[in-house]
Design goal:
With 76 residues, the protein is an alpha+beta fold. Helix content is 30%, strand content 39%. The chain has helices at residues 14-25, 55-65; strands at residues 2-9, 30-36, 42-49, 68-74. It has a 4-stranded antiparallel sheet with strand order 2-3-1-4, covered by helices on one side. Helix 1 crosses helix 2 (55-65). The chain is globular. The N and C termini lie close together (7 Å).
């Protein structure tokens, strides 16, 4: 089990949360996505997975949703 906290810019509403959640949940192994929305700043996306998820996969999913990943830290 691994957990990664990703910092994302550009998210402003619940529609943004749903878009990012949907894309990140599509990554193989991801079991849970939790988002602390900060409409005026950097939102924090917590991703839990059965195995380690690469930063590249997370970045691709977040960009596909239309947002910018500005950092990630593993807490596994």
């Amino acid at each position: 089990m691994s957990t990664v906290i990703v910092d994302v810019e550009g998210m402003t509403c619940e529609h943004c949360v749903k878009s990012v959640t949907s894309e990140v949940e599509g990554i193989p192994g991801v079991t849970e996505v939790s988002i602390a929305l900060e409409p005026e700043g950097t939102s924090h996306v917590t991703v839990t997975a059965d195995a380690e998820v690469s930063p590249e996969a997370l970045q691709a999913a977040i960009e596909e949703a239309g947002y910018t990943m500005v950092g990630a830290q593993s807490s596994s």
